[in-house]
Specification:
5-stranded parallel sheet, 125 residues, alpha/beta
Length: 125
């Protein structure tokens, strides 16, 4: 006979601090700027061989947890993560943030969005 907290009743939790995202065009501007940033590609090596954004560093999502030590210099710097369409990179962003990285951003739409809106020479697959 009265309203209930539906999300609480169903066990749904809301992310209180969501991972920020940026568009491919915003990434293009960031890369053109002078600020130091790491563009982290979390796709698999075979995908990286097919298509890549110039200047990106490959660490596949499945290896990221074990290879965090390679990224310690970036803990306080800007890290932009991408995959093919944004799902794996969102998981990688959460992993990085949980490991203490302060400025992590997900590329919305991944390398696919980059190919469509910024650089059509980057092969879509």
């Amino acid at each position: 006979t009265k309203l209930i907290d539906y999300d609480g009743f169903c066990g749904v939790t809301r992310e209180t601090n969501p991972i920020p995202e940026l568009s491919a065009a915003e990434l293009q501007r960031a890369l053109a700027g002078s600020a130091k940033l790491l563009l982290l590609d979390v796709r698999e090596a075979a995908e990286f061989e097919q298509a890549r954004i110039a200047g990106s560093t490959l660490i596949p999502l499945g290896q990221l947890g074990a290879r965090l030590g390679e990224l310690t210099e970036w803990k306080d710097a800007r890290v932009i993560v991408h995959c093919k369409s944004g799902g794996r990179s969102a998981k990688a962003c959460a992993l990085l943030r949980d490991a203490g990285f302060q400025n992590v951003t997900n590329l919305s739409g991944g390398i696919d969005a980059w190919s469509i809106t910024v650089d059509p020479s980057v092969r879509r697959y």
